[in-house]
Structure formats: structure tokens, C-alpha cells
Amino acid sequence: MLQISGLNKSYENHRALTDVDLLVPKGVVFGLLGPNGAGKTTLLRIVNQIIEQDSGTVELDGNKLSPEDIRKIGYLPEERGLYKKMKVWDQLIYFSRLKGLSESEAKIQIKSWLDKLEIDSWRDKKIEDLSKGMAQKVQFIATVVHRPSLLILDEPFSGFDPVNAEIIKNEILELKHKGTTVILSTHRMESVELLCDHLAMINKSRKILDGTVKEIKRSFRPEVFQIVLSQLKKALPVEWTPKRSDDTWEFTLPLAGKSPNELLSEMMDFGEVMTFREQTPSIEEIFIHQVQSAADE
Ligand SMILES: Nc1ncnc2c1ncn2[C@@H]1O[C@H](COP(=O)(O)OP(=O)(O)OP(=O)(O)O)[C@@H](O)[C@H]1O
């Protein structure tokens, strides 16, 4: 869907992107992660043709990005941009028309989204009279109303309470199921775990990690198992620091060169194995690990 090759961008003396390659497959939710100032917004602005790269290419559906492609893209920028004095309905009509919808099509789409997000009763309110979360919902509709094939969301959950964040999460997943490709830039790692199929991490202008969430989690496995035993047949070594609760003992052990089956059969000699589960790192742990190792280099 989106292929970025050798992208470079500097602001005055500051390098914001260095040789970034990225391949975003069609129909996935692609997480773009990175610490503050890493270069994520710069990359998203280039894809949205708000700023220009110094070198490198961006292709959408196999063709070099052109001004007409803006209609295929929906961009929710980090700094939201609604006209405060304008009413919700008029504003959404305005944005839909800008993105190429006819007036009748715009009305149908807007009505359907206002109903879906349960905000039709606010259609005649000015943006300045809305709460932050309400305005966020209007901005989300303005981003998706023209049914873009590529949706780029920069921190889409900021300003939402947990209930509304959940509603937006579900809408993102529904759009994905309808075939929309989504790029999601966020610092909320739990949303990445829940929503993203692929992810890339950018740190200090360079891409430092890229792959499917499954592959990445697999490659960072610490090879440590969580084990719960009951009905002990013999005492557990103290260095395993087992935690006792009622008649179960819980601890973690590294594979230390053994196969999982070898470790499991060793555990069976100690008692009934109630739980034997490999610990997988969270995306947050991987993120912190990657950023810290890059800093140590
Ligand atoms: N217009 C600009 N002029 C000069 N420097 C800029 C400009 N825009 C961004 N930068 C710098 O480029 C770097 C990358 O910024 P960018 O906004 O792309 O980061 P980011 O990954 O989106 O960060 P955050 O997570 O904080 O939003 C930062 O060091 C920033 O200060």
C-alpha cells in the first residue's frame, strides 16, 4: 500500500529522518512508535505532503505520491485543527467537500458517523462549546468521512475517556476489516498490542525495528517460563524463590539451554504442574529495551 524508501529530512541543522525505509502492507494496522522527537510526525507530514523530504521516495499503491492522493488519505494530526467558531455539521460538510465528496454524499456519510458515535444531538453546536473529547470525535469523523483507503492517526486516543477510547478503537478495527490501511502513531503501548499487526520503531531519526507484532515479540522472547506447581513431591530449591499461596507454588525459570519439554519433565518430578507458560515481553518492554540499547551504543 505504502512504500517509503531512503527517506531523509533535516530542519536547519537538525536531522529528523535518516534513510528510513518502510513498507506498510494493505489492510493492516501499522504502529509507528518512537520516543519524543524521534521523527514520527515528520514522516507522517511527508506522507501527507505537508512538508517535502530532502531525498527518498514515497509510493502509494505502486505510484509516486501525487497531490491527488490526498483524497485517498485521512490524516488525524497530533495538533487538531477544527474551526472553533464553526458548527459541527457545517464543519464536517466543509471538510468532506474539501476531500472531494458531493454535498449529498457528504450529508449521508456525516449523518451515519454522527449516529454511530452518538453525537448527532451536537450537530448545531459550535466547536468552542464542546468538551475536548467531543471535539476529538468530530475531528475523527472529519478524518474518516471521505472513506480514505489510508488512514493516518497521530495519537488518536488523546483527550478521550476510557469508554470513548474503546469506541474509537472499535471503529478503527471496523475500518480495518472493511479494508482500510491504518498507520497509528502513539505512545500508548497497550493500544499497539491490541490494535497493530505490524510496527516500526523510530529512534533519533532512524528506524531501529520493523516487523509484525508477532515476529517482534517472538524475537525478544527471554526464554523464561512461569511455572505453578501443587502437591509437591519434594522441596523446591530456595534459589528459585517460589511464592506460596495456599497449596500452590509459583516461580519463574529460564530455559538455560534446555528444551521446554525437558524443563517441563523436570518440573513434573517436583509435583503437579498447574501452569507452564512462556513469558512474552510486552511491546512496552521491547520499546524501552530498544531505546535504551540505542542510547548505550
Ligand atoms: N519545523 C521544524 N523546525 C525545526 N525542527 C523541527 C521542526 N519540526 C520538527 N523538528 C524537530 O525534528 C525532530 C523530530 O520531530 P517530530 O515532530 O517528527 O518527532 P516525533 O517523533 O513526532 O515526536 P513526538 O512523539 O514528541 O510527537 C525533533 O527534534 C523536532 O524538534
UniProtKB/TrEMBL annotation:
Residues of the ABC transporter domain: 2-229
UniProt keywords, alphabetically: ATP-binding, Nodulation, Nucleotide-binding, Transport
Claim: Acetylation is one of the keywords in the record: no
Single GO molecular function: ATP hydrolysis activity
Record-linked InterPro entries: AAA+_ATPase, ABC_transporter-like_ATP-bd, ABC_transporter-like_CS, ABC_transporter_ATP-binding, DrrA1/2-like_C, P-loop_NTPase
Keyword Nucleotide-binding: yes
Source organism superkingdom: Bacteria
Family to which the UniProt record says this protein belongs: Belongs to the ABC transporter superfamily.
PANTHER family reported in the protein's UniProt record: ABC TRANSPORTER ATP-BINDING PROTEIN (PTHR42711), ABC TRANSPORTER ATP-BINDING PROTEIN NATA (PTHR42711:SF5)
Stated name of the protein: ABC-2 type transport system ATP-binding protein
Source organism per UniProt: Algoriphagus boritolerans DSM 17298 = JCM 18970
